[in-house]
Amino acid sequence: MHLALVHPSGQPAVPTAVLVAVLLAAVVHALWNALAHSITDRLVGLGLMGTATVVGGAALVLIAPAPATASWAYIAASAATHIVYNVLLMRSYALGEFGQVYPLARGTSPWLTAISAAVFAHETLTATHLAGVLVVSVGLASLVLAGGRPNRDELPAIGAALLTGV
Fold it and tell me: Which contacts qualify for 47-54: CB closer than 8 Å, 24 or more apart?
């Protein structure tokens, strides 16, 4: 079954299973971040997240074929990037309020992805694409600013959250 999405590029509709998987991943990701924020010892939190990743990865190793040799450098770069991401995320949570740093970290990447797609992949960003990015970003920015304009003391948390988004 496919959703009846009409895309200006003429690309095929998004399969419902893919849409459900993406939405489920978004919910699990948000729950994971809320749980990570609630753990007071950030090192313990990072360790628990790492343990869950190792267990999930071990299960995949048992059932999936080995990656192609040419992909190992990308796997290593991805793993290193993810470690930096987790450290910055934990630093954001240690420095700031979850309701401020989480939406900022999440709201940075849609713009960076759209800009990168246009510049490096020569994607054509239609008004609809830009409107979607704008709606997501404005919604997340409104959460960041819900407690008022950030003050000077919050700049380290904001910096860490922005770097997390990058």
Answer: 49/86, 50/86
Residue pLDDT, tens place only, 128-155: 888 888 888 888 878 777 777 778 888 8
Q: State the Rg of the chain over Cα.
A: 18
Which residue is it, tokens 């948390």? 157
CB atoms < 10 A from the CB of 148, how many?
6
Listed as ranges, residues in the chain with pLDDT below 70 are 1-13, 36, 42
**Nearest 5°: CA angle at 20, between 35 and 84?**
40
Main-chain dihedrals φ then ψ at residue 71, nearest 5 degrees: -90, -10
Alpha carbon separation from 12 to 29, 65, 87, 131 (Å, rounded): 27, 28, 38, 21
CA-based nearest residue to 11, from 126, 90, 112: 126
Question: Rounded distance, CA 132 to CA 4, Å?
Answer: 18
Burial class (CB in 10 A: 0-12, 13-18, 19+), 98: middle
